[in-house]
Amino acid sequence: MNLIERRLSKLTLTAFKDREGKVSVDKLQAMYNPDGIQLDYQTHYQPDESINRASQSSRYASSQPAGLSLILLFDATMPDNNISVEEQLEKLKALCSIDASTNEPYFLKIEWGKMRWENKGYFACRISDLTINYTLFDRDATPLRASAALSLVADESFVIQATEKQLKSPPVTAVRVADITSLPLIALGAGAALVNGINYLSLAWQNDLDNLEDFTPGQILQAKGDA
Q1: With bands split at pLDDT 50, 70 and 90, how would you rate the model's confidence at 54?
Q2: Where are the alpha helices (DSSP H) in 156-214?
Q3: Which is nearest to 18 in space by CA: 102, 111, 114, 142?
Q4: The pLDDT of residue 68 is above 80
Q5: How far is CA 73 from the centre of its chain?
Q6: Neighbours of 148 (CB within 10 A)
């Protein structure tokens, strides 16, 4: 029994005019039942210039949005399939096309059964590549079966991105320097307000102190705990 003959789960692709997903355009359901799902994450580095060429190091440059590849199946020979392959493919191409009002591709959301997609219930993205492969025709050359390979790039709501960044950011507290104190004591007091505490060396580094006594009474120091 091949992939086409199996009972396939339906994947839903919904297009929106806006990144926040408030203005929907249309949606499409297609057969999808992969052997596996691959999400690609890429981090780029740049080589550090070094006087000593014998040693090498790399410096972080950027992180790329997650990439997702899908192969959707369209089969007019399946039972209860009353929509032609060509009609379904035209709809898919329309959802992956350029929005005339913004001159940019539509924003897409991918949903598939109980797949959590990093605990969101969907994968927010935009199309980067679409390839259609026709595999079966009727006697009059009417397409009966085709597959569509989509390459997608994550493009999440700005609101959700900001919320996730805030949740991942370490907590910050402000500490006023007393008249007679030391940096270790200041760090001890600041650590009481932070889940993982903070040591005095980290406190000095976070506030750009040149030495362990580079502060004055009444000064406000910012203490950022570990994430």
Answers
A1: low
A2: 158-168, 183-191, 200-206
A3: 102
A4: yes
A5: 25
A6: 19
